[in-house]
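Data card: per-record layout.
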Amino acid sequence: MAPGANHRQAERSGPRLRGGVANGGLCRSVAADEGYNARGHGAAADTTERQLLSGADGSVRQWAVAAMAALGALTAIACSTTAASTQDPATFDVAGAVQATALGAGDVLGIRVYLHQDLDGEYTVAADGTLTFPLAGQVHVEGMDVAQVGALLRQRLGNGYIRDPQVIVALKALNSKKIFVLGQVKTPGRFTFGDNMTVVEAVTVAGGFGPMAERNYTIVTRGSRRIPLPVERIMQGLAPNFPLQPGDIVYVPTSFL
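The structure for this 257-residue chain is written out next.
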């Protein structure tokens, strides 16, 4: 090996490790070094390591081997912990998605029946969870989604009234679902949940941040879960947006800085 090769190899390895830590942790640094070795450069590093160990006395060699083994174990633990802790808080929630589309009192539906324009119109779900539709009578729709309402109306209308009825149901207003935006926003209160509503939209409908808001530690409470979110970073495109569900409480705490 050429004189000074060990020094150059150490220089190359050192900045790579520091760069990995600065850009997101040791895990990415280790992954990068694995790719580095895979391109054929790792052999020199392995040779250098063996030469350094062979030149040391027995106690130093034992210490070095133990240290490298401990570092490998710690790296594995750190990488697995990092992977677990960086999971997207917006993981898909089937029950929440069903709840978000379920109809309730106050919701407005646009209903059309093909070739029967006299039946077309907007219909509001009553306080008891029903709507009244011509020929079909009173229909209980609370807890259903629009597809289920359409299927139910087709069944009712096809029962001696219209042959093979074609029914289209669209959601016009989801008034039954609410979210709450509290804390350091300009107009805190209760707001109607909108389709595909996000935490950024919730802060926006509440008038935006107040002057004392902690902009990167908004807390969404969902049942027993408390989810901290960096809303200003989301607005800047530096973090993924977070979808809300009906009943969520969005709280913007006060910044003391």
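Known properties of this structure: Residues 6-49, 69-87 have pLDDT under 50 and may be disordered. The first strand starts at residue 108 and ends at 113.

See the next section for split statistics.
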